[in-house]
Amino acid sequence: MDRVFGIKRIENLMDDTWGICTEDEFVTFKGNIMPLDQARFLCLFDILNIPWDWKKQVWDEKLEIIGHHVDANNLSFSLSLRKKHNLITALRTFVSIKQHQLKDWQLLLSWSSWGLIFALQAAWDKTGSKIYRNLFIPTNTKVQGDLQWLASAIEDSMGVYLFDSTFCGPRQADVLVVSNACPKGIGVWFPNSAEEFHHLPPQVRDIYWVKLLSITYALKLAAERGARKIFICITTKKIACRSVRPLFCFIIHLLVTQNIDVRVGHIPGAKNIIVGALSRGELLQVNHLLPNSRVSQIPINPSIPE
To answer: Which superkingdom (predicted)?
Structure first.
């Protein structure tokens, strides 16, 4: 549409279409002032003989788009307080009842899928193979726990702020942190502030768990230092999500409630020498690599499952 009609910034989902413009991109179209791209889009409708209604042609600095409150002044996406309340109430009511028809499961999943969709996986697994919409499907502990968590996360969320979320690398971050783990323990290093931490968990469940535990403590320590833009370097490329859901939920809740933005960089384990030594508890090796280092035990947080 850009090449033929000059419509540069437009998006759509089903029958909803929206775009953005600057203050100098307004024109008068059929006696009404509106953004240029919007006017050109309506011209295209006229050419194709597609009917449209003036009352649906809206523009403003703040609009509701596909159910989201979009604020162009602070570059934020969020749910209105009323819609947040309705969704939270629906989630909590749903888990309080032992079984629901498939069509009610599908309605709730569709309604909830605007964000934090990993929390819906158990519900999708529960309903994915079902085809009879009037069939009653019982809930289970996993679904109930995930949906209760989702309700609390939405309740605490302030929305997504695009301007605050825009940073690319460690130079733009408030904090640079490196983490690593091995079967013996975890290590965390803040290179810019010369802080080193290590911790030997009382019982390592599996390597996926201990690796995500190191990331969890790294993000928690960074958040305690007031960081809102965190660049974390890790050696892990992939973690099996199902086995570490409690830790993953803790991380998401931390990021949502404290409005933290995270970027992740991968560092090969062979090059992550300092944090590797920290994770193994080889403090003499750390002191050799960093002569002025002062290694501390990671303060145990009872809210982080180990």
So the answer is: Eukaryota
Residue 70 lies in a domain: no
Pick the most confident of 92-101, 200-209, 281-290. Answer: 92-101
For 177, 189, 191, 198, 276, the CA distances from 270, given in Å and listed in that order, are: 17, 16, 18, 18, 9
Full domain range(s) for residue 11: 2-59
For residue 89, report the phi and psi dihedrals to the nearest 5 degrees.
-60, -40
Distance of CA 111 to the CA centre of its chain: 17
- For residues 136-164, one letter each, b for 16 or more C-beta atoms within 10 angstroms of the residue's C-beta and e for the rest, the string is ebebeeebbbbbbbbbbbbeebebbbeee
Predicted TM-score of the model (pTM): 0.68
Choosing from 161, 195, 225, the residue where a domain stops is 161
Mean of the per-residue pLDDT values of the chain: 85
pLDDT in tens, 242-265: 667 788 888 888 888 888 889 989
pLDDT tens-digit profile of 129-154? 888 999 999 999 989 988 998 888 88
Q: Number of structural domains, the chain?
A: 3
- Is there a contact between 296 and 197 (Cβ–Cβ < 8 Å)? yes
How far apart are alpha carbons 7 and 19 in whole angstroms?
10
Instruction: Indicate whether 177 pLDDT > 90.
Output: yes
Separation between Cα atoms, residue 158 and residue 147, nearest integer Å: 19
CB-based burial of residue 293 (10 Å sphere; 0-12 exposed, 13-18 middle, 19+ buried)?
A: middle
Pairing of strands 229-234, 175-182: parallel
Residue type, 190: F
